[in-house]
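Example record for the data management plan.
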Amino acid sequence: MTTDGVGAIPGAQQKFLTNVEALVHQQDLLLVKVLLINIPIVEVEYGHEQRELAIEDLSKRLSELVGVAEVIRISAVLFSIRALDASNPIFFIRQVKSLVAEINVSGRFRFLLETSIGGVVTDHGSELTAKDWDARLNLALMKSTRTGLPELSDDHVATSEQVRHELARLGPGSPPPVGMHWVFQPINYVATREIFGYEALCRWDSPTLGSVSPEIFIQIAEDLNLVQIIDFWTLKAVETAYPELIKRGGQAISINISAQTLGNDHEFFSAVDRILPRIKESHFSLVFELTETSVIENQIDLTMGLIGLRKRGAKIAIDDFGTGKTSLSIISSLPTDFVKLDGSLLQAERPDLSKGLLELGMKFAELVGAEVIVEKVETETDLALAKEVGATFAQGWLFGQPVDLREIPKD
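Corresponding structural encoding:
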């Protein structure tokens, strides 16, 4: 088998696709790719001969692995594998990972083989071609390269990789992607059910990807160090929306803000300086929500950022309280006006346990001088419990779905 440096082996990829295409509509297939990610370094430090010995050893062992139907070396550093059985993909991928570990533990080579491993299980009832499945397999391999763990492709992985590709094109000054918009979920007084304010929630109905969960695109934006841009867009959306929300009885609007933005985004603070005075003149409050789980690193920048927002006249909320791993001592050191108790506290196994957990949150809020908002209040029972523990505000679908201002006819 000859190769051209670290490039493709002529015809190998097409052979793999041809073999898969012959079977893909007859039976489900487990396809796996193994990428040797540190081979260029190995060649520089230990020479071409040692590199080739290691690759040939891995190739031989992969071919001998129980359950392997076919192994094709696509390039000098990439192997494509078709398994005999697709019923237990996790077990098979673990076997591949263990095989690499055995080579490293054996001490045969003075270096370790570092690999990325991606897999996909095809659906013989699907209209997807071998090339389509190979593209999904490559997405899983790409994710494995980032996470350092074997990855099995599914719709979530495929969507995540496409989202990553689209967001990676963004930069300062970019407009929101097509289909990204903001809706506003009501926050109500517990005692009277009257509107207190709204939370701005980012949504993305992409024309190419469909409805993308915020859990996916926000996390990817953070990974790409682009979440500051989404925070900026959210602030701009609030600037446009708050006059209408005032008409609807709102007294405050809250937006989520990342610790990344608080730490180093001067453009965001400049926008706050421009927008906040006009919001305050309308007797409207701007609240910045920081998730408990994000209160982890760079405490000095985080605290200074929150203090800066407060000095400008904004208010601060700790979101999802009760779900994070951050110590109470760290949270209590932050300037806080609202504590939002996570709705999972309402879902404890026993009603008395839910009540006890909420009461602990209420006590914490009292100690830091903050008011409480109970999240995910969806039933009358939830609201009654929030009222019983003395919470001032509640947020959830009991009070209605988020408001989409795009649906309001313009004058």
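Summary line stored alongside the record: The chain has a mean pLDDT of 89.
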